[in-house]
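Field reference: sequence -> structure
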Amino acid sequence: MKARRHPGHPVVRASAWGTALLLVALTGAHGQTPGPRLRLSAALAQAPTVPAEPQAPAHWTQDALRWQPGTGACTDRAPPRWDHLTLDDALAHTLCQSPSLRQALADVAEQSAGVDIGDLASRPRWSASAEYSGARNFNSFGRSGRTLSAGLGLSWVLFDFGQRSASLQAARQALAAALAAQDNTLLEAVRETLRLYSDGVVAAAALDASQEAEASAEQTAAAAQARYEAQVGNQIERLQAQTALAQATLERVRAQGTWDNARGQLALALGADIAQALRLADWEAWALQRPAPPDLQALRQEAREQHPRLRSAQAQIDALRARLDAVRADSQGSVSVSASGGNSRNWGAAGRGNIPAANAAVVASIPLFNGREADAQARQVLAQIASREAERETVQRDLDRQIWQAHQAWRTSQQSLQASERLLESATATQRVAQGRYKAGVGSMQDLLNAQSTLADARRQRVSALMEQLTTQTQLSLAAGRVGPFGPTPWTTRPR
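Structure field:
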């Protein structure tokens, strides 16, 4: 922040000749000698130039699927430029450092192992055994014997009324639910990154505007003090200018606290220290894009087909249905075959020689008197299915609500941005007129202070409107279950 005189410091009194010169410089000698303009800054006094046809850069979420914790893309990525942090860099490093994504990946790995276990259950099980034993008879002869035996066994469930296939299907659906949950975690991570970055941009803009407003208030207070000392201004104007300066200082202090809080939260999401200094840059290009909102009905249909929350809910229902089949099959019994073969060698009291052995059996296992238990388990699973179906309907309604709200917010944000641009142009013109009137001696101090405050507020509102448009565009795509911009064909987060 620029060094400036503290508002509480007394104004150094000038000589009468110096005061007269200052008065002429500020007000002009009946319009003959224009003096320096009282203004916020060149950046705030001029309306921002918006290109008629802004270039359309690659979407800031286009590489979101690459940034998975623990992958080579994240490991090889260099630290971000803290002094020039773009939105896409913030997303990449947030995803790479996301603990929720790491947990989702671990859940997927767990369910994938469950599928492998279910697949192995349909295969035969082999076992090998070896045993060595020794014995001694404590009688008059005191003879001892030793035995060494080894064997190989096989067990295989031939038929179980579909229990193993149902369990395998349940494991596969659990994996599908975990993959959908991972996709939804990615969507939420993108949403949270944009929220934190947007809060930082708005807070930084508010801080810049408050600093400019404070600098302008200092100039105005100095001018009012000079007019008062030259006996061409009154006490009310001087006090009003000092009050406006104190208010501007208070707003700057509050804006600094808001920025520090927003910066710290964004730094933590990036995996950096909370005290890490940041400078947000190059986000305007995405915010200035103004594509037409897609068809609302098409968005709802797209969400029903691909949104991870719905896919996860449906996969959980399918897993429970497969589990119900497994419970019913378990009550029917199973048919299995077992076989084993081996050889034993004896020494001593047990005699000498090799004793080969082999056996085989076909076992039919039929549960008896377990009807109540099987019925209770089936009813339990049916109740869980009914609960998940109700949950799926709740998710569907929630997604419809989010899509509707995001669609309306997008349309509103486009109109708000246009209105904020008109407001900034009007506030800039008003401030210039107020300056001219005050310099000419026909305008009041209150009009100038109001114009300066309105211009600073218009600057903040335009930045907020830009970020609101970018946010609503992203929120609409996330509500439909996609990562990336809307185009001719939807981009789902993961091929189904």
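Note: The radius of gyration is 38 Å.
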